[in-house]
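4-hydroxythreonine-4-phosphate dehydrogenase: structure, please.
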Amino acid sequence: MKTILISEGDPTSINYELLESAFPLLQSLGKHHRIYLIRGTHNQTVRSLQNLNKPIDGPGFYSLTWKGQGKSKTFALGKPSSASGKMAYDSLLAALDYQKEMGADLITLPLSKEWVVRAGVKGFRGHTETLAEAYKRPTFMMMAGEKLNVIPLTTHVPLKDVVKELKRFDWKGLTRAIQSSPYLNHPTVGYLGLNPHAGEGGKMGTEETTILKKGVSLLQKAKLKVEGPLSADSAFLPGAKPYDLYLAGYHDQGLIPFKLLEGKKGVNITLGLDFTRVSPDHGTAFGIAGKGCADPTGLISCLERLVETKTKPI
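Here you go.
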């Protein structure tokens, strides 16, 4: 029996509609696994979902309300606030506390970085970075789809800071994370050049030879099959040489082609942890919250990832 925790994310987003749509699957999986929605005290709910005050030993799909929240809040779908941002962040922290207690895997539903920061959480950059802080280890975002796996070497940082972040990137930590991931088995790796046309031999920038090549050499010393730098504007075209894993220099360089090619089935997997954390590859979608058109494909893909038979770690 596997234990799966779901942090609720922002309660004014599409998240509760996703849970409603995926409810039959969650109930079915609950026959064999322990699944908990970690939520705050507020008016958004999943119909017919039993709420508990503490975990139980048996299988099932339940709601688990974390303590110490004070008065219940009332939220309107599509209307985020500092209160909903704080609720989302506190739900994440509560889920991490339960994870450490139960050794569970984790699904994090989308939250808004803007509203978490507006709630007074200084320096918040996202789930991946928060997990690194909580577990005192380097973590890496891998976008995983049916055909593509992409790791952005820098995540939620301004474009002007990408080179600075790459200079202090933890290549040894990435090597260990790739080698220990149950979702990667001796992968072939292609890394994208940071500059147009991969720098054209230094004519359009030297980061490929001064930063990326030095880091990639550590992956190669660990017996990983790495090739590059690849020109990012053609690496994902039909007919281009395929790789099991792509390393992108920055967030949008890797995530734009990934989302275009993988659609709504993509899953964000955090590498570097002793458990599996996954998240849908979409955001809060406040603009359509409450309109009944939210697509649960991403959440379903997360659930399928957690219960599938994993490949043997390297």
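Notes: The first helix runs from residue 15 to 21.
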